[in-house]
Amino acid sequence: MRPDVSTTFQAYVYDDANYEKTLELVDNTSHNALTSSIFSADRKAFLTATDTELCNAASDVYYNEKCTGAIVG
User: Fold this and answer.
1) HSE of 5, CA atoms in CB hemisphere, 13 A
2) Rg for the chain, CA atoms, rounded
3) What is the pTM assigned to this prediction?
4) Are 19 and 45 in contact (CB under 8 A)?
5) In terms of DSSP bridges, do strands 33-39 and 58-64 run parallel, antiparallel, or are they unpaired?
6) One GO molecular function term (predicted)?
7) CA distance 17 to 10
């Protein structure tokens, strides 16, 4: 049996006032992602995402203050 695996890129722009609601939406949208990335210049945003809502949302999570151009393969 072959597992269902596909590549998907998603970007979601949200209002800063709705950050926690956005994390909840991402957490409840799918079971588990292989890789995810969080871009932020705010360290508190990283901590909120990992310590609360998104701690089990993906197998590999990358935290970025800016785009690094890294490719996971």
Assistant:
1) 5
2) 13
3) 0.61
4) yes
5) parallel
6) L-glutamate gamma-semialdehyde dehydrogenase activity
7) 21
Determine contact, residues 34/60, Cβ cutoff 8 Å: yes
- The token duo for 15 is 């209002």
DSSP secondary structure letters along 19-55: HHHHHHHHHHH-S-EEEEEEE-S-HHHHHHIIIIITT
Instruction: Report the alpha-carbon distance of residue 19 to residue 23 in Å, rounded.
Output: 6
Give yes or no for residue 43 having a pLDDT over 80: yes
More confident residue, 23 or 7: 23
Nearest to 37 by CA among 58, 23, 55: 58
In this structure, what DSSP letter does residue 5 have? -
Torsion sign (Cα): 32, 23, 65, 11: positive
In this prediction, residue 72 carries a pLDDT of: 60
